[in-house]
UniProtKB/TrEMBL annotation, chains A, B:
It is a multi-pass membrane protein. Keywords: Membrane, Transmembrane, Transmembrane helix. Signal peptide: none annotated. One of its GO terms (molecular function) is chloride channel activity. GO terms for cellular component: membrane. PANTHER family: ANOCTAMIN. This is Anoctamin transmembrane domain-containing protein. It comes from the Eukaryota. The chain crosses the membrane at residues 199-220, 226-251, 323-343, 394-415, 515-534, 554-584. The lineage of its organism: Eukaryota, Viridiplantae, Streptophyta, Embryophyta, Tracheophyta.
Amino acid sequence: MDNREEVTTFELAIVVPKREEKDENPRDDCVECFVRELMKVGLIVEIVQGISDEFIKLAAPLETLGRAAAELQIMKLTHIGVDLRFDWDQEPAFVRQPDGSLFSWCERFCCFQHLIYRIVNRTESVITLTVGSIKYQWEPNESLLEMMKSEGIVKQVFPLHDEAKRKLLLRNWALNLLDFTWQPIDDIHSYFGTKIATYFAFLGMYTRWLFFPAAFGLVLQMIDLGAWQILVLPLFFVFIISWAVFFFQFWKRKNSALLARWGINYSMSLVPGCKPSGADISSLPESHMEPESKMVTRRPLEKDKSLQRDEWLGLLQKIRNTAVVVLGIICLQLPFELVYAHLYEISESDAVKYALTVLYLLSIQYYTKIGGKVSVTLIKYEHDKGEESSADSLVYKVFGLYFMQSYIGLFYHALMHRNFTTLRQILIQRLIVSQVLENLLENTLPYLKYSYKKFRAVLQRKHEKGSSLRKSIRLGSRVEKEYLKPSYTASIGDEFEDGLFDDFLELALQFGMSTMFACAFPLVFCFVALNNITEIRADALKLLVMLRRPVPRASASIGAWLNIFQFLIVMSICTNCTLLVCLYDQEGKWKIEPGLKAILIIEHVLLLVKFGFSHFVPEEPAWVRANREKNVAQAQDICSKQLLSSISSFKARKVD
Amino acid sequence: MDNREEVTTFELAIVVPKREEKDENPRDDCVECFVRELMKVGLIVEIVQGISDEFIKLAAPLETLGRAAAELQIMKLTHIGVDLRFDWDQEPAFVRQPDGSLFSWCERFCCFQHLIYRIVNRTESVITLTVGSIKYQWEPNESLLEMMKSEGIVKQVFPLHDEAKRKLLLRNWALNLLDFTWQPIDDIHSYFGTKIATYFAFLGMYTRWLFFPAAFGLVLQMIDLGAWQILVLPLFFVFIISWAVFFFQFWKRKNSALLARWGINYSMSLVPGCKPSGADISSLPESHMEPESKMVTRRPLEKDKSLQRDEWLGLLQKIRNTAVVVLGIICLQLPFELVYAHLYEISESDAVKYALTVLYLLSIQYYTKIGGKVSVTLIKYEHDKGEESSADSLVYKVFGLYFMQSYIGLFYHALMHRNFTTLRQILIQRLIVSQVLENLLENTLPYLKYSYKKFRAVLQRKHEKGSSLRKSIRLGSRVEKEYLKPSYTASIGDEFEDGLFDDFLELALQFGMSTMFACAFPLVFCFVALNNITEIRADALKLLVMLRRPVPRASASIGAWLNIFQFLIVMSICTNCTLLVCLYDQEGKWKIEPGLKAILIIEHVLLLVKFGFSHFVPEEPAWVRANREKNVAQAQDICSKQLLSSISSFKARKVD
């Protein structure tokens, strides 16, 4: 159907230890057996010998993928605009990707996962497999790959770069420096999946929009308006807030336009298409018959009641966890940050300041690590609905830490001491120096790690072979090089989030830094805009060259980050107002008495509660949603076949 | 299937003038012809002679309704949880109402409308019909009822009360005074339709929740805490705001639970099921073939572009209209209100105050009428998507008027003069006196109108018959009595809204009055709670006894009013803060300097913009939504038949 599908590009690699050349009984060999099974499933297998490991490269013909997708019951957009269970025989009914292939990278990855983990012992008895001289037991109905992973035979399963597409992207995107913010979003989507493409779309649009405040800030810096100067800062403040509000509204619109272009039906996404386990599929036939009787009586029955109870219990747990995090931040982090800021303020020599900063940076590193671990532990006790919801929950919690860490010092200098010189210094230091450094580190650290790993592998091999071989050993295969590259992981652990967490965190902190203190330093937007232009290319290079290909994620919005950005806008309304008061009130004439102060604080806290509350309690009761989801699933179950054939015949009629 | 369906309850009445007893040519008589056509359609017709009019009462067997519903392609919830086009042959596939009937009152009304307006001249030539001695031309393809309406032969078409159900509701609901806030919501839903039932569900829940602040307010009034008294008002303020936030969040949950109970699929409600015109049905077959080719290319093509342009044009129009309304309110109404409040403040004798109030009330009446008319005219120029959207737009505009009218005087007394005695006086006056009076008027005015109309009809008849008949003429038939009752219309005109507008307006103004000035007068919540308990019964009585049965509306949320209530909460955070400042700042020590004042004003305006903006620009571009809707419609079109038969057979298998 499509030429590109017929070229075998290997998309997944499995790493196993190098075997001795001659095995006495190849039938019993664990890896041999695994390869045989993989081929039986319909995958194309190529084995590459590395220096100290062996790599099983996997590719799949379209039909193998299609059958796996049908088994997984992946929901896929059809030509009539509704998502239906995928069926290989009715394949023409489904919408293709913008690049002409049937499955997106995320769907292909799901199918691969399903295919390789599905290899189970179908016999009644235990099969004994050997690796070298060690024997392993393969229990009936146990997944072979799971067993090999837990026994340490399989070291890693990771997605492979597609060299042709990677080089094309490198040329058109990462090294295409002439177009400042333009990016081939569709190609990024088809190569990295939805979540990463959404990040780059957001970054591009944000950078484009940043040109407006950057230009305004530059003009403010250069032109002196004399007597009108006093009106300029409030004007700038109003402009920045309106700009931010408009930007995020238009981003939401752009996001849903992107979803439409990529054929993702957002309303249907509550039925996740990508689940590696077959548990919920096998349980379908039972659940399928009983809810009918319930529907007729139409009362919130026992099941609804228990759903309601679960919902409230989950809410209480969430509140408790949030309380733990908030208390931890306020009681542990806040005093620490204030002490640092205070010492920094009162210390006179630069040497002391530097020493303090080094000490601070070291300790904050540990604190953040611990905070991240605590958050992950807390989230495991929450009954969240799926991966992405847990990831969002983690993002909120960890962002709290970073928020305190990044801004409390700035607040201290701005509000307590009205020391705008230090404030500007720190802003410049954080935004320019640290962001440039971070960009450099982001790109060099993976390379150093990779070099070190390569060096060690070569060294080890040399050592094993002894001094008999004098010629230098080189990494021959591309797959081995990729194996040695670091993967795209978050600094707070890889359980719920990948490297996107760090990239979004950087953006959010930068956004907060620039908007919350906009009145103190309008020029900051120029630096931010410049920084983001380089950020686009640096992130692209990092993903394409420095790292392994990341595992694709299906989520198609920026998720929790959107709410964090909105929160930062509200915060910046408050902080800029305070900054303005501080700036214009040099003589201290506008004293706010304690009573008025208390009332203003109450007001702002209530406003925050008012607008934050809706994020805590969902508008739709859980049992209503559960019923609806169940119904939709049931409908799809019954009618899929009929719908599909009718759509197919409809299409066929149209072609004639 | 169901016994209740087989009793013929007449649900619609058409009023025509009384004919002379002997007509020379009954075949040409317009009314005769109409009645014949009605019977041909399958309706059960009964003609009742009134004093000066003749009433054609209509009932429909279930099958007639079913076939009409199938022709109208009403979307209806099926047992598998998705909405599908109604099909009379597959009737068991559709979910029945909680009371066991197949169609809801709203659907039945739609079908009736369709049946009676569908009677067109199917011949090629003009048919001449007579009424008395006047001849009328019935053009080919013209609706007979439309013609008769425009010629004045049909005076009115209105829904009839169902005596059995009405009496039951009267006993269980309106006169059931022992249960303060409990209401038979399901029965109300099946008798009055979704929109009115939603209103009463909201009113009941609101009244139930009001008991908390009422109790708190009462306790505050009765107990003196001595030195702690100063902390009590801020505490009350925080409590009220949290209460309001919680209440509306839980109302949203309750609303979606109600929707689930009544079998309304909210996500599908963008395909309105109830459209009296057949225009969009006849255009379906064409629109059905062409969009397919577009979907494959997947670019925002010409049509998307024009949709985008339309969206922005519509937005600009909306902004212009809003600007007109806001300017009108600020430039015309605000000075007027301030003059009145000022004169009231400085006038010393009570007589002058009363005279002023009378003058004010008279002029405000006119102003509101004009405002309503202007709003309706403005809305007609907006390209809104359907009836309910226009109604919402009207609600926002007219509420602006009433907001200014109701609160500006209160603000003036509270903030300008810090005159809390006058403020409390006006609050009591508005809340208690005016609401009690309004409740009385609401119920007596319709009765007086009805009595007057009855009296006039009898008088006219007597006059016509001369003094030959001395015995008193009485209204014999129930249908004539209902005809003379006033209908449930809004005070601002009946084009987009019905009487619910006035009822919701009363609630919203009351809510604003009590929460915005909560700190000035905590006891107010007691009065509000008492008032609402009577309001429930008074409104029930009004609907059941005083008025004609209202035309049912399909909308299933409180619509624009929810946003208005949310806005009032934000407003009340600000006003209560100001009140607290005024209350505690008797010595004027907490002077806010102009600079700080300006900054605080900027902050609050920006906060409002931040949270108001999302109501202006929808999150989803119009073209994305249009595509989705088109796709869904198409899907339903193709697959309805297959889906239905499979669901039916599925159901049948289950029954065996």
